[in-house]
Amino acid sequence: MSGWEIFEIWVIAFFTLALFSFMYKDNPLYKVAEHIFAGLSAGYYVGLIWDTVIITQLWDPMIGGDWLLIVPGILGFLMFARFFPKYSWVSRTSLAFVMGVTSGIFITSQLHGLVLKQMQATMQSLGGGGGFGAALLSIIVVVGVISTLIYFYFSKEHTGVLGVTAKVGIWFIMISFGAHFGYTVMGRVSLLIGRVQFLAEDWIGSFKYIF
Amino acid sequence: MSFWEKAEQIDRRWVYLMVGLAVIVPFIVPAEFPISITPESRMLYDAIEELPDSCTVMVVFDYYPSTIAECEPMTRTALHHFWRKDCKVITLSNIPLGGPSMAESVTREIAREYGKVYGEDFVNLGYKANYVAVLSGMGTSIESIFPTDNSGTPLSEIPMMDSIVNYEQVSFIFEVADNATADYWVSIVNAQYGVPMGCGTTAVSAPKYYAFVGSGQFVGLLGGMKGAAEYEMLVGKKGKAVIGMGVQSLVHLLIIALVILGNISYFVLGKHKRRLS
Predict the structure, then answer these.
(1) How far is B183 from chain A (nearest CA, A)?
(2) What's the pLDDT tens digit per position in A33-71?
(3) From CA B268, how far away is CA B277, in angstroms rounded?
(4) Measured on CA atoms in the order B77, A189, B245, A14, is the torsion positive or negative?
(5) What residues make up the domain containing A10?
(6) ipTM of the prediction greater than 0.90, yes or no
(7) Is A90 part of a structural domain of the chain?
């Protein structure tokens, strides 16, 4: 292990422990780590966007002869007009372009790729194979989807059949929240395990090269 | 003051300490818990097994370094799985912070084990901003979106990319994500170009993506560290996820115990009556 690698490991370990120290109480070490992280992330993003968007996707191809790119370049530049209240209206042209393109791309792809496919998967045939278990699962999915949708239907008071169905919907939503919470706990614990694995294996492992 | 009243007022730092100990102790005294294989992980494994040998696949590193513990075992195991089948691997990332460099280090490390050569057996395309344009554009031409690889070598000079123009030459995409980019791989690439996809995701995102397995948009799913551990077991490459699951199970037991204690305390102290009134 080279000296530089050991230095890297110690820097990572220092910031990990500094951020963990917040669990005891707020302290200057935590604040330092937090501010360095925020500053570094912002700086990294600016550099990255400059390199991967402005230079690679705009400047270089334009210099290479693709002069049509000056149009999106100008549209992008106009966005900065928002910083000047008197001329901020100019940025609306760029925003309109962004909204139009985004809507065009997203409406079709989301509808075709997500909404319709998911609806199709909800409407499975009961006799489509898989036996009784699969048929029961299909019924539960349909009941879950309909009752949950009815829970979010607010144009009529939730009484009678509508009220009962909405209550069934609440149960489905609660079960879903429970599953999400369980997975969230698992995810957060995994993050902690990742850091402890690093500290136990890499950081403590580097002691033998130093001490 | 009763036990339950004292337990109610316990400083939360004691809970942190208990969780901390539950995580640290198994590293000193390893704890092993059985890992059962879920159908979603099995489906992913089977789908990759059924791919023709030497086909071209994409492994997408759409995760930040903060979720390495969950996501990296998935990409590592997938690379072992693909290279056992002698597949050509294209890696890329839609995550600017760390994605391309993690792809670079992980693929090169595992490539050495299988004697794979960069440019002939695998290529790292790196990162390109605006994932919607990237995913759509690669349907027409990968080279138009990534004129160079991650280290600046023109794609035209990379032998492996000679016969790969767009998604038509890609047999399978394995997306590992800790964010919503998986949605766009489904809605743009799978829906519009019909490329079969599998997904590995963080536990936080997993419940959402099970619906995509049910609809057949993902051939299988690895949910969090558990999914990664299952995949490691299936491929026969036990790694950090399997080790981590021992710790994970212990912490889960602790949290379940705390939740039960909290609920008992809630009823014993009569808080449910106050709420009802």
Answers:
(1) 8
(2) 999 999 998 998 899 888 888 988 899 889 999 999 999
(3) 16
(4) positive
(5) 1-65
(6) no
(7) no
